[in-house]
User: Which sequence fits this backbone?
């Protein structure tokens, strides 16, 4: 044991000796460079919300750098793996802040991990822009230095419920995963139910690796549900819709930002017509096959050969554009306080990807409140139905 | 009606577990080792099949053959790299070696295929629409998987009974030293075992992929359920593996239907703990003495 | 005594650990504390797996039980940390005792699966017993305070973990070199033979499981205080693999090996961050390399090549004579 602490102390001091050598006005900022840290899962199942989003961030940084950077400074991205684990996230954030001495952070993929790291980030006063974690506790009550471009789960929950009610649903049911991802959505959804005075007629659970959901479908059928809010990853959701089709259960199915590519989802479900009643929310207003995001598709394919553009990349693109805008607004004499102030005063900023304009304020750091509703008619193209800004009071 | 639906869905899901359990049992039968990377072998084979069939547009049969061949080769390689050097190692080291292998496979798959989609879909062998089977609707691919599990079971039961290679494997598993004495090259037998185990994983992957979808982390839970099924069946019995798989599937399904869907994940594990405590050598292992 | 004997090397490392808080930054302090927690886990697990030879997969679950009990007692019953923490260790010990019951009938792979099933069931309870455990979202624990001592929380926790790691490692050394340690090894090397020597399998297996439960429980309590947050994903199968990897890399059946293994793996996990996305591959490859080329773990290399690293299963001659009883085991026929 001591061997290790000794060794890590050695490595630590070595790194410390190298890292801040060129520090100018703020940590991580030099005359020609800004070091930005990113944490999220690079390994394990959470990599979709970590690594792939970071890839999106990186192509934006590349574009900015190719045009000369922000106020003459190039952006450098330092990635740390949090393995989607609370201890991993706390370690990653501490390393980025104290060892790598980054100027600001953009990251956060897994809800529990980011939530656990919040205290550390808040204490350090390093600005953080959350790019994918939806847990409300990360941004409410607001920490002065933490902002989010993710559609937080409360916003999403209200949107889902309003959508179901607007379509005339009387008997709304919920099917969810009870891991931290599902739980971060489930609880606000139950709160939304309560505030609307509606009770779910059934509340079923599906595991993330489920290969059969016949039992759940039969129970929902018995409860006579006419709308089902699906808080599942695409895989269990696909199994659920497949089994629903098999058992001729045809309510309105309402998805969430985890299933944001209806074309891919239709293939995953596999049963023809299985997604006929499926509507879903996306944080971004384009699906990856949309010509409007051609530029980013090419950038991803060029930089990460073998990858295909995904909605996760697009979260990163939008989020990084917000950060770049704030860095620009913060002016050439960059300090962390200035960046925080610039983030807090972002108003109606249109990114290339997000459903609606990004607006932050001193009081509300959930800057993205315009979930886009999307749907794919079986055999037809994917359509954005509408973008519904949610106002929370 | 509820019961019959739940029973059928339990059996079809159980067939997935049975296919995995068969691979585990065959490796264990010949080598006494449990390959904790079995699920990852299956996952990699699934991605290979996807690359051949969807990526390179090869016909289904060719993709299947190619995948199985590659699976066989990976098995030989696994044996050479990871197991032969560990011939006399203790169980903990062996288990850990296979765990190490599983991490390598998972990481590699994430690098190669992880950026393509969250879950890759794979076209089914048969039509995609559900069909009516008596009063029950069923997805044809589920029947294919069930038939596949039975075919693998019968083929390998015959292999162990009838062929020399199979008998050699059986002999080596029963007593490696004695097998060596009568001139069986036990290292070859072990290699064969891993190769065949991995080949079954590859075949299973192609059958299952349309139902399970493909993603780098699909392997472990499938392995745990397959391992559970294999143990329930006694770890060396092929029919036991199939029955064990179906038992796990049916317990899951009934618990989901009659208790609550939240009980689905935990019910099989509770049943297995109970089975093992009452009957430590598996359900079908009546005659044999307890293994220590 | 050779210069690079175990005692000297470890004392130098201990001295290094004592001054680390004044040399490092908050990150190194965090990693240091994490390291001592893993030392506790590895030492406890090695007693069970390395010495007593029980292939159990429940260590991460017991780690979680320790963390949850410590955290929940603070949050639900508002006990202070220093009251909740021992309770966590006791509960984990009791759970260890319960798991030892199936171990009496099962061994090898069957035991592996039963304990694996137990670990899955524990995860399920963490996730679903929401009225008590807060479910998958986890919960925040209060920040602990070391008042009236004049230390900040992270530093205090660092030294508390260091102290416990040192004390419990010394304790494990003594257990290993005692009648109990020899009984464990006898069970590992052959249950029937051990029984014929008069070793009470029931008692010693239960003891091995209880001890590893205790170590994991202590580690869990410290972990909850370090993170100020308890959630199910901290105690999953990756965690279990990590503990197993530590004892295999360090050396099965060696307390010193556990120290080395914990040190190396915590260090590697941090160093592997540099591999950016290929950590899984690197981690798996390291496991394989260690298992294949360094069977017996690092400690076996040291034992072979350096003097003063032996770990006899007996205390030094003089002390042993004072304590010794004939035979290696308890009274037969209990």
Assistant:
């Amino acid at each position: 044991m001591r061997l290790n602490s000794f060794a890590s102390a050695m490595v630590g001091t070595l790194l410390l000796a190298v890292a801040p050598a060129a520090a100018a006005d703020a940590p991580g900022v030099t005359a020609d460079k800004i070091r930005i840290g990113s944490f999220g899962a690079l390994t394990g199942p959470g990599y979709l919300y970590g690594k792939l989003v970071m890839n999106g961030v990186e192509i934006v940084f590349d574009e900015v750098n190719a045009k000369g950077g922000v106020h003459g400074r190039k952006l450098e991205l330092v990635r740390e793996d949090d393995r989607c684990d609370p201890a991993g996230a706390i370690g990653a954030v501490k390393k980025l802040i104290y060892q790598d001495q980054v100027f600001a952070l953009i990251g956060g993929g897994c809800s529990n991990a980011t939530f656990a790291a919040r205290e550390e980030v808040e204490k350090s006063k390093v600005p953080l822009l959350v790019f994918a974690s939806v847990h409300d506790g990360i941004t409410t009550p607001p920490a002065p230095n933490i902002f989010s471009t993710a559609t937080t789960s409360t916003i999403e929950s209200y949107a889902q419920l309003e959508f179901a009610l607007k379509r005339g649903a009387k008997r709304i049911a919920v099917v969810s995963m009870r891991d931290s991802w599902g739980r971060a959505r489930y609880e606000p959804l139950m709160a939304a139910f309560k505030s609307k005075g509606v009770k779910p007629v059934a509340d079923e659970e599906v595991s993330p690796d489920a290969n059969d959901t016949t039992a759940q479908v039969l129970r929902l059928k018995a409860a006579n549900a006419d709308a089902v809010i699906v808080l599942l990853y695409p895989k269990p959701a696909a199994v659920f819709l497949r089994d629903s089709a098999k058992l001729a259960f045809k309510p309105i199915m309402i998805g969430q930002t985890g299933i944001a590519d209806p074309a891919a989802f239709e293939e995953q479900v596999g049963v023809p017509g299985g997604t006929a009643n499926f509507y879903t929310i996306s944080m971004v207003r384009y699906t990856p096959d949309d010509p409007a995001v051609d530029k980013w598709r090419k950038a991803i394919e060029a930089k990460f050969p073998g990858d295909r553009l995904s909605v996760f990349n697009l979260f990163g693109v939008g989020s990084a554009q917000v950060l770049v805008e704030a860095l620009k607004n913060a002016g050439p004499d960059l300090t962390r306080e200035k960046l925080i102030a610039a983030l807090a005063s972002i108003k109606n900023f249109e990114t290339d990807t997000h459903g609606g304009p990004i607006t932050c304020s001193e009081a509300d750091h959930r800057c993205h409140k315009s979930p886009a509703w999307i749907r794919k008619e079986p055999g037809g193209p994917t359509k954005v139905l509408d973008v519904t800004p949610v106002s929370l009071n | 009606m509820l019961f019959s639906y739940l029973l059928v869905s339990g059996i079809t899901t159980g067939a997935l577990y049975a296919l995995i359990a068969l691979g585990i049992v065959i490796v264990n039968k010949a080598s006494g080792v449990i390959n904790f990377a079995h699920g990852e072998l299956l996952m990699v084979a699934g991605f290979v099949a996807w690359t051949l069939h969807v990526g390179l547009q090869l016909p289904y049969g060719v993709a299947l053959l190619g995948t199985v061949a590659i699976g066989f080769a990976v098995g030989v390689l696994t044996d050479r790299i990871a197991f032969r050097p560990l011939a006399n190692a203790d169980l903990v080291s062996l288990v850990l070696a296979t765990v190490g292998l599983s991490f390598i496979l998972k990481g590699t798959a994430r690098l190669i295929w992880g950026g393509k989609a969250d879950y890759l879909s794979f076209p089914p062998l048969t039509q995609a629409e559900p069909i009516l089977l008596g009063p029950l609707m069923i997805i044809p691919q589920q029947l294919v998987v069930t038939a596949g599990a039975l075919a693998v079971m019968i083929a390998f039961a015959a292999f162990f009974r009838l062929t020399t290679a199979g008998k050699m494997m059986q002999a080596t598993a029963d007593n490696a030293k004695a097998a060596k004495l009568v001139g069986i090259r036990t290292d070859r037998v072990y290699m064969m075992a891993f190769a065949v185990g991995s080949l079954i994983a590859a075949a299973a992957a192609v059958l299952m992929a349309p139902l399970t979808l493909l993603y780098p982390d699909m392997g472990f839970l499938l392995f745990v359920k397959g391992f559970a099924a294999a143990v329930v069946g006694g770890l060396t019995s092929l029919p036991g593996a199939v029955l064990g798989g179906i038992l796990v599937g049916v317990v899951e399904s009934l618990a989901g239907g009659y208790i609550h869907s939240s009980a689905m994940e935990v019910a099989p594990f509770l049943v297995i703990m109970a089975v093992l405590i009452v009957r430590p050598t598996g359900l079908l292992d009546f005659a044999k003495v307890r293994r220590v | 005594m050779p210069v690079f004997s175990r005692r000297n090397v470890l004392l130098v490392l201990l001295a290094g650990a004592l001054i680390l808080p004044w040399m490092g930054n908050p990150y190194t302090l965090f990693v240091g504390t994490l390291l001592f927690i893993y030392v506790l886990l590895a030492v406890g697990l090695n007693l069970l797996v390395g010495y007593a030879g029980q292939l159990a997969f429940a260590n991460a679950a017991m780690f979680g039980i320790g963390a949850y009990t410590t955290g929940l007692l603070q949050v639900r019953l508002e006990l202070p940390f220093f009251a909740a923490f021992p309770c966590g260790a006791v509960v984990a010990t009791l759970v260890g005792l319960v798991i030892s019951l199936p171990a009496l009938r099962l061994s090898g792979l069957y035991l592996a699966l039963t304990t694996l099933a137990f670990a899955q069931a524990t995860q399920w309870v963490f996730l679903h017993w929401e009225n008590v455990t807060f479910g998958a979202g986890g919960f925040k624990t209060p920040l602990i305070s070391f008042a009236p001592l004049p230390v900040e929380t992270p530093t205090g926790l660092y030294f508390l973990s260091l102290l416990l790691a040192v004390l419990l490692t010394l304790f494990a050394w003594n257990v290993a070199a005692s009648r109990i340690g020899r009984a464990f090894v006898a069970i590992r090397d052959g249950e029937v033979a051990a029984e014929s020597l008069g070793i009470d399998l029931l008692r010693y297996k239960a003891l091995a499981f209880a001890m590893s439960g205790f170590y994991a429980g202590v580690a869990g309590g410290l972990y909850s205080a370090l993170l100020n947050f308890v959630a199910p994903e901290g105690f999953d199968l990756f965690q279990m693999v990590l503990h197993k990897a530590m004892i295999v890399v360090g050396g099965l059946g060696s307390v010193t090996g556990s120290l080395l293994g914990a040190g190396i793996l915590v260090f590697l996990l941090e160093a592997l961050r540099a591999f950016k996305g290929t950590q899984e591959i690197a981690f798996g490859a390291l496991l394989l390399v260690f298992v294949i080329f360094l069977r017996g773990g690092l400690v076996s290399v040291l034992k072979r090549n350096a003097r003063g690293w032996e770990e006899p299963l007996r205390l030094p001659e003089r002390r042993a004579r004072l304590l010794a009883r004939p035979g290696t085991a308890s009274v037969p026929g209990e």
Notes: Residues 325-334 of chain C have pLDDT under 50 and may be disordered.
